[in-house]
Amino acid sequence: MDVELEQLEGIMATCERISIAVKPDGVQRGLVGDTIEHFEQKGFCLVGMKFIQASEDLLKEHYIDLKDSSFFTGLVKYMHSGPVVAMVWEGLNVVKTSRVVLGETNPAGFKPETICGDFCIQVGRNIIHGSDSVESAEKEIGSWFYPGELVDYKSCAQNWIYE
Q1: Nucleoside diphosphate kinase-like domain spans which residues (predicted)?
Q2: Residue 89 in contact with residue 17, Cβ under 8 Å?
């Protein structure tokens, strides 16, 4: 095995996956393609995607950490109000980097050239969800996708993205 291939396999072995969902407001506003473009331009690899109407049970499980908050019921109702596009992206440090790509959830912190900064005005309609840690990503991916729905492949662009 040559040195370049060994280095690439070492990098890819440390890759993470993240769960990203374009929420009903993002779907209704036609921002799915713009969202995908942000992640593709960053160099991440799309390994799973589905367009679904999420069940209330799935949404309650997804937002279980927020079950005691005053906005939990409204959040579940909003997320159930229309279809979502659930995705799994893979890449080196994808969770930490994606949080920067997504931007702040608070409108006061919205920065240009982030998804929230470019497309959002209010926190309650922030068009996108992204896992906040590797652990939560694993849990969320397991809730939204069956193992056979994720594709394991190596993009031909990897040599142009990773040293």
Answers
A1: 15-152
A2: yes
DSSP-assigned beta bridge partners for residue 51: 85
pLDDT tens-digit series, residues 6-63:
554 554 446 899 999 999 999 999 999 999 999 999 999 999 999 999 999 999 999 9
What are the pLDDT digits (tens) for 57-114? 999 999 999 999 999 999 999 999 999 999 999 999 999 999 999 988 776 777 888 8
Q: For residue 80, indicate whether it is catalytic.
A: no
Q: Which residues lie closer than 8 Å to 152 by C-beta, 6 or more apart?
A: 47
| pTM for the full predicted model | 0.87
How many helices (H) and strands (E) the chain has is answered by: 9, 4
The answer to whether 84 and 27 are in contact (CB under 8 A) is yes
Residue closest to 96 by CA, chosen among 14, 161, 159, 9: 14
Ramachandran area for residue 120 (φ above 0: left; ψ -120 to 50: alpha; else beta): beta
| Amino acid identity at 43 | G
DSSP code per residue over 56-120: HHHHHHHTGGGTTSTTHHHHHHHHHSS-EEEEEEEETTHHHHHHHHH--SSGGG--TTSHHHHH-
